[in-house]
Amino acid sequence: MKDYTIFDIVGPNMIGPSSSHTAGACRLGNIAYKIAEKSIKEVTFLLHGSFANTYRGHGTDKALVGGILGFDTDDERIKDSFQIAKAKGINFKFLAEYLGDVHSNTVKIIITKEDNTTVEILGSSIGGGNIVVTEINGLKLEFTGEYTTLIISHIDKPGMVSKVTAVLSEYQINIAFMRVYRHEKGQNAFMIIETDDEINNNLVIKIKDIEYVKKAYLINI
Fold it and tell me: What CATH number does the domain located at 6-137 have?
């Protein structure tokens, strides 16, 4: 008889024993991977609450690294994610950290990219594989990844919303939810746009070409 490990226990569209501790963790890592735009050199995972206490036994650590590698929640390679990351030259570590008044399954992912810039994402796995991201690079915001999501980093200038929504209208994209966040007037800002329709790369490229747009990320998990 085969000896089964926790990574052989398959739930709906996931590898691992717990949707909160593995599927949700993988999705959080995957979002960080997409925002970092793949060029990852080193990752520190700051684990809060239940994540910090049980991450080894529940496979949260392997799921987070799998997400950072771009794996989906049902990817069989998650159980080998440590070895795969090391083979790619990606260093990683896990630290227990109190992150404040947040959900018990919360992680802050700190990525150092190959050009030595950093990306920080704070998010929580809230049950059933569902997640919520609450901070990117120190800016408090909120999105779940439930919808196709476009994240736009830009300078806070008049007319930015209308320029972006004009491109979405041109491609017949219906906006389900839209939120705008900024550090302060005239400084760095984010748009979080969740859509009912899939977004293709041509649309993203067109948005990146808008004056004062710094970056645009497509999140589809």
Answer: 3.30.1330.90
